UniProtKB/TrEMBL annotation:
Record-linked Gene3D superfamilies: Spore Coat Polysaccharide Biosynthesis Protein SpsA, Chain A (3.90.550.10)
CDD domains in alphabetical order: Glyco_tranf_GTA_type (cd00761)
Taxonomic lineage of the native organism: Bacteria, Bacillati, Actinomycetota, Actinomycetes, Kitasatosporales
Domain TarS/TarP linker residues, every copy: 210-302
Domain Glycosyltransferase 2-like, residue spans: 2-153
Record field: transmembrane: none
Superkingdom of the source species: Bacteria
The protein's name in its UniProt record: Glycosyltransferase family 2 protein
Length: 390
């Protein structure tokens, strides 16, 4: 409360119609009048409403599992009590799933007084792939799931996790699904920032983040064979869950906490940090995680200070401008011994720097074309020679 009032109003306003909806509301030991509000809603709402009241479980996994156990519809959608739906959300998402036979549908999310994921809403997609799209960067539970998929695989939220339980559940659904759809041309979900700032994702000990990263990395390793596809997915827990533990906050951590973070990170780095993951990151991200992997907290402090200051790293261009290194702390320091490759910018990052040329300019086909031109000029002096590229 009071966010629940608008949340329930958005449910009543759904254009899919009350006959096609069932609401299962789990009051997880609230003490602010939530239970009474739900009972009142159930008494007057035009759709089927079941209210379950229970002792506080300490996290969202338990209540979601209780609700999922009661669900009877073809699809389920997990709606948090402080958020709300766009009026056409359920109608559009169900239509998308029915049209394409897909098991998961992502509806566009918009933040209200808080940030929301953006990179996956560029285009509505009948079928998206977790390996070639950005859907892996939205792993919250606020998706439409085909219930038969969840029942077939016995999928439930991990009640041992206080945070990150939704990422585990959603990524497993992506990987098991017979297709994922994206509704990007209509805002289906409004992610509301609470005035008191007490979103679950913003609270809790740093150790919970390591628990979340560990669980997600293990899921990926269990479900995806080692190689390019696994590396692609591993980027998400390394970048979103693990790396922030070695950001600006690290500078204010006590020596004991810093040491503990390195201890918690070591088995994860040993098991899952690969060159394939590293090369998909920006230089400052790759450098920080490399130093975590190498267990070098003192060198990491210098890098974090540099990143926190928001300085633009200088660039060194080599190999006729086709290799660009960003000069973060300890670049080519013999004492530090960090390989040059850690500082090598990939084309996406390097393109912002004047003088950089992508290596493709010197590719084998282009070199062969230049050689052919030289030969023809010698054979046919004075004749022009041109080539068209498709």
């Amino acid at each position: 409360m009071p966010y629940l009032v608008e949340c329930l109003a958005s449910v009543e306003a759904q254009t899919i119609g009350p006959a096609r909806m069932e609401v299962i509301a789990v009051d997880d030991g609230s003490t602010d009048g939530t239970g009474e509000c739900l009972e009142e809603f159930a008494a007057r709402a035009p759709m089927s409403v079941t209210v379950i009241r229970q002792e506080n479980s300490g996290g969202p996994s338990g209540p979601r599992n209780v609700g999922l156990g009661k669900a009877t519809g073809r699809y389920v959608f997990f709606l948090d009590a402080d958020d709300r739906l766009g009026p056409e959300a359920l109608e559009r998402m169900v239509a998308m799933a029915d049209k394409n036979g897909t098991d998961v549908v992502l509806g566009k999310v918009e933040g209200v007084n808080r940030s929301a994921p953006k990179s996956m809403w560029g285009k509505t997609l009948d079928r998206a792939d977790v390996f070639t799209s950005n859907i892996k960067f939205t792993l919250s539970a606020q998706k439409l799931f085909r219930r038969s998929l969840l029942e077939q695989h016995g999928m439930r939220f991990d009640e041992s996790l206080f945070t990150g339980e939704d990422a585990l559940f959603t990524l497993e659904a992506y990987l098991r699904a017979d297709g994922v759809s994206v509704v990007a041309d209509y805002t289906c979900y409004y992610l509301v920032g609470r005035d008191d700032g007490k979103q679950v994702t913003k609270t809790g000990s740093y150790t919970l983040r390591f628990d979340s990263a560990r669980a997600l990395m293990k899921l990926i390793a269990d479900m995806v064979p080692a190689g390019e596809k696994r590396d692609l997915l591993m980027v998400r827990p390394f970048l979103i869950t693990l790396l922030p533990q070695f950001g600006p906050k690290f500078l204010t951590d006590s020596e004991e906490v810093r040491r503990h973070k390195f201890e918690l990170a070591k088995p994860l780095m040993d098991a899952y940090w690969t060159p394939g993951v590293a090369r998909r990151l920006k230089v400052n991200e790759r450098l920080r995680l490399h130093l975590v992997a190498m267990q070098q907290p003192e060198l990491l402090l210098d890098v974090v200070k540099f990143v926190k200051a928001k300085k633009q790293a200088a660039a060194v261009l080599e190999k006729r401008g086709t290799r660009l290194y960003l000069i973060y702390p300890h670049f080519r320091s013999r004492k530090a011994g960090i390989p040059d490759e850690i500082y090598l910018a990939d084309p996406r990052e390097a393109r912002a720097f004047l003088g950089y040329r992508e290596a493709a300019a010197n590719s084998v086909p282009r070199r062969a074309l230049r050689k052919a031109r030289r030969i023809l000029r010698r054979v046919l002096p004075g004749k022009g020679f041109g080539a068209a590229a498709a």
